Input
Amino acid sequence: MTAVSTALAARVASAPRSRFDADEYFARQRSARSELPDPEAVLSSLTHCALEALAGARDLEQLARWVTDDVYRGLQKRAVLASRARRARGASAQRPVFTIGRIHRSEPADGVVEAVIMVHQRHRSRAVAIRLEGLDGRWRASAITVL
Output
């Protein structure tokens, strides 16, 4: 090792180290409600896409950027089970026919929306519960439950 490299190594070793938490800096950042768009359109679109994905008429990958990893894995399990059930019956995947009904929503905290979306089909009505959280300036679903 040369004298210059030894001196440089000693200076770097003695320099004060900053206490920098990379996880905190690079992790998803919460967004305030004032920074986010109206959640009504996101709720309606997510409901529509989730029901089509569970029916096998839409690729679940299309929802990936709008949901958290846990929600994606949960929807993936349900889609696989629904696919197996269709195969056992000999039925093919068909696009479901439904209309989005009333959306009941509340905002329990800043940047959080919880909603129940009524979905009306020909012979029955269903409810879809969704929790949206503002992350990185946009809405992401942290929970989706199709009842």
Notes: The domain at 28-146 is CATH 3.10.450.50 (Nuclear Transport Factor 2; Chain: A,).
